[in-house]
Amino acid sequence: MASGAVLLPAALRADSTESIQHAPGSFSFLFLTDTHIQPELDAANGCEFAFRKAAGLRADFAIQGGDHVFDALAVDRKRADSLFDLYGHTEQAIGIKVYHTMGNHDHFGLYAKSGVEAGCPGYAKQMYRERVGATYYSFDHKGYHFVILDTVQPTADRSYEARIDDEQLAWLKNDLDKIPAGTPIIVSAHIPLVSGMRSYVPLNLPKPPALGPDHPQLIVSNANDAMQVLQKHNTLAVFQGHIHVNEVVTYHGIHYVSSGAVSGNWWHGPFLGTPEGFMVVSLAAGKIDWRYETSGFKSVAPTSQSW
Q1: Which of 24, 75, 191, 194 has its Cβ near the most Cβ atoms within 10 Å?
Q2: How many Cβ atoms are within 10 Å of 225's Cβ, its own excluded?
Q3: Which of 3.30.200.210, 3.30.160.40, 3.60.21.10, 3.30.390.50 would CATH assign to domain 26-294?
């Protein structure tokens, strides 16, 4: 793929053309997150390994939960372009439509150590929008309404905050108010709205590569604002990435499902006991179930470190 080429065959839009007036159907979809593709650590082969296994599961489509690449935050344009090129080529192995969620590592040049100037072509979310599509949007499939949220907001000091901005919150409320009452809803959010992740690691454990020092970045800081909106509708589940562990928290009838990563411990083996893999989600007559499918990939550089 040529540098700067659009990753997807067509840009995703925030509006939907498929009717949801009929009763919810039965099908499965995949939730694959935190691929962190890079030429090092045999990561491209690891992604393709997972994608080919996913392709054999006959799902209707896949949702990519964010952090496609490792890493666009702190690199120059040439490296970032090469990572998105590599991801776009490798994703073809899935063989089905993929809807994309933006992750923190998908922001170009945000960290000052990238060497690029703030506001340069492609900066922050612009490269993703040009190569992948919208950062938040919704779509409908067989009587279900799917919402993709953008949970990463750049800050003035060239970092990022886990937050859903006011404009997006207003869009979310309007989007859900427009669908027929009772329509089952599934959400994708890269950074979790709800998680007990802080309880799983020692206080003195060094921060993982995903986190910076200055802003709330592990859990969405204003999650309750979005949750209040979701709780007014028939929201079945929110699928989440970022933390690389399997976890389910159910609150007010909504399942907040964090998924293990395709990359596991950033391509160094399992992370906190969760091996490399992805979610298979089954929907039937308005009900939801899921399971975690391990990819079987073996790291070329395993480590016992927790991050």
Answers
A1: 191
A2: 16
A3: 3.60.21.10
